[in-house]
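Reopening this ticket.

The earlier resolution said the output was attached, but the attachment link was broken on my side. Pasting everything inline this time so it's all in one place.
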Amino acid sequence: MTELTIRPYTIDIPQERLDELQARLAQTRLPEIPAGITDDYGVPTTWVRDLLDRWQNGFDWREWEAKLNAFPQFMTEIDGQPFHFIHVRSNEADAMPLVLLHGWPGGVIEFLDLIGPLTDPVAYGGNADDAFHVVIPGGAGFGFAGPLKETGWTTKRTAQAVARLMAALGYERYGTQGGDWGAFVGPELGRIDAEHVIGVHVNAATFGFLPFGELSEEEHAALTEIEQVRYARMRHWDDDLSGYFKVQSTRPQTVAYGLTDSPAGLAAWIGDWFRDRQIDLDRVIANITIYWLTNTVASSILCYYEDMHAGEWPEYSTTPTGVANFADDVAIRPYAEMMNTIVHWTEFEDGNHFAAMSAPELLTQDVRAFYRSLR
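Inline output:
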């Protein structure tokens, strides 16, 4: 296996790309809304209109570009695919390497508020013994690495690429943390690189942490009160909110044309998952802008199709696993224990699916607590 060539990288979007985006935003055509339309039909037009107005008239991409460039960034190539990642080493001698894995529709921007507290805990009121070296891969076909060059990027292939990256960085023992799709890749990384992965921490966990299908009356009655709430939330998602999942796992290329050509369409498709979730609107817009400027929304959604058609079923993981369940998460411990070695489980009343942005302090505290016994 060839060694990876790693080079420094700085984000520098040409001004003409930003001007082209502004021109498209100025030509937005929104749908006519018939009487009776409610939020149950999808993301409200008023919310999209407000987001588009902010995107065109108040949002400053250069500010967010500078925020990202404040951290050391790098580019490499793994398995024929460009890989962008942030890598921040702690000044603490005994810091532990930790790879942070984002979900969809997110990116490296999710973790900006975690980098400081994780790498320099003392400066944030923590203990030096909890320090981490942080690696944040952008992922195949996401963000600044650009669109995918070929299909076949399943969760397992992505985990293999991350394992190669961590080895190339010289990390022989490391932990993982991931939410949403990162909670797919993290556990898989613990399986395929168990010799080096000392622990897997997840939030917004679904596959591998839930029952499959509907529960019987007896199974439902055996759940605790909070587990019944999470199960009901899961059924609601499956019945009423999973349209994007079904489209992206069956016809991703069809929806990709509209998402790639229309800023308004992209904003509605992605923004729907961030509204009412205590996340700053400019951060939401910055995330959407990255998908637009890098032309990666089409390749980013392919992970759904690839995994649903891979025909692979993961084995039980013996890697110590910790779960942080935030206010609208759905993981249920008895079912998570069927596929994972659960050694840590925290239930939170605050935060949400995007905990790294909505509750970074709570997520940081839980990551620290989980890894204290594994260092």
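Reporter confirms the inline version is readable. The CA atoms of residues 81 and 215 lie 41 Å apart. The chain is about 45% helix and 15% strand.
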